[in-house]
Design brief:
The complex is a heterodimer. Chain A is α+β, with helices and mostly antiparallel strands. Chain A is built from two helices and three strands. Classes of the chains: A alpha+beta, B alpha/beta.
């Protein structure tokens, strides 16, 4: 089965995010009020061949742990769906 | 006998020749080690130089850590061989797990290229043995991701075990504890963001990098 995976990598709670702060500080200057807690991450999308969704998810989780994130400062959320 | 220093080269390394010239000037033999080969020869010490290994894609050091040469360097380090990671090399050492913590984007989001003042905090390491505690060193930095970050527990462990070697006098990048350089528990693996190899000649404005690299060559000789 082909699966589409999306990994959203973000900085862990409590880790300073200078990019997020800079964006947040810019928002009132542009006239947007009430924007807070801006965090910048990255999303990584790929297709994966796997027997079923469970094994696909396990593979992506391992890929995150070993490569796509640095667990010292980042964590990730994983979305998986069957490819068209 | 003069030690042989291996300097690893990744696609995107750009400080390997500076490192070679600096340690040659101090009397060492040098050998460039291509990242794609697990063969690191009979080197007495290893420098992981600055640059942008693999374009710093994903995260600095994230791809470099899987290079065949890195496996050999991890073995070399585990056997007690002296290893120094400078700038991008420090990032690679944290990614490969030889040093704790991570290097985040600078707090001011600026690429910093300037000479900074470092304070020697510990002389108990392969990079600082020939310096003195409290001495100021003027050494350039050249990085975007040099903001040393770790858990409180790790920071306490570094502090309590004398593993913080160099701190910034005027913290330029937001590093926790003003950390510029640390070592591993066994004290034979050191990572630092500043570039001692660029402060080894009067023409470069400072020779304060010399005692650091001399310490390294001394330990490689031992």
């Amino acid at each position: 089965m082909q699966y589409e995976a999306c990994v959203e990598v973000r900085l862990r709670e409590g880790i300073a995010d200078p990019q997020g702060s800079t964006i947040e500080n810019a928002t009132p200057k542009l006239g947007f009020q009430g924007v807070s807690n801006v965090r910048v991450g990255k999303s990584i999308r790929f297709n994966l061949e796997s027997d079923n969704e469970e094994t696909a998810r396990a593979t992506v989780q391992e890929l995150c742990d070993r490569f796509l994130t640095n667990p010292v400062i980042e964590d990730a959320s994983i979305t998986i769906q069957g490819a068209e | 006998m003069s030690p042989t220093i291996g300097v690893i080269v990744f696609p995107g390394s750009n400080c390997e020749q500076d490192a070679v010239e600096a340690v040659k000037d101090l009397g060492a033999e040098t050998q460039l080690l291509w990242h794609g080969s697990p063969e690191i020869g009979n080197v007495d010490g290893v420098i992981i130089p600055g640059g942008f290994a693999h374009g710093d894609y994903l995260r600095p050091g994230a791809i470099a850590r899987f290079s065949p040469a890195m496996e050999s360097i991890v073995d070399f380090a585990k056997k007690g061989g002296p290893v120094v990671g400078i700038c991008n090399g420090f990032q690679v050492l944290t990614e490969v797990g030889l040093l704790p913590g991570a290097l985040q984007k600078n707090i001011g989001l600026k690429f910093l290229c300037k000479t900074v003042t470092l304070k020697v905090v510990s002389t108990n390491s392969i990079l600082t043995s020939q310096t003195q505690i409290g001495v100021d060193l003027k050494i350039p930095i050249n990085h975007f991701e040099g903001n040393y970050t770790c858990s409180e527990d790790t920071l306490n462990e570094l502090r309590n075990n004398d593993r913080i070697l160099l701190t910034y006098e005027d913290n330029p990048n937001g590093s926790m504890g003003d950390i510029a350089g640390i070592c591993n528990k066994e004290r034979n693996v050191v990572g630092l963001m500043p570039h001692p190899e660029r402060a080894c000649h009067d023409l470069l404005g400072s020779t304060d990098g010399k005692p650091l690299l001399q310490s390294f060559l001394e330990s490689a000789n031992g």
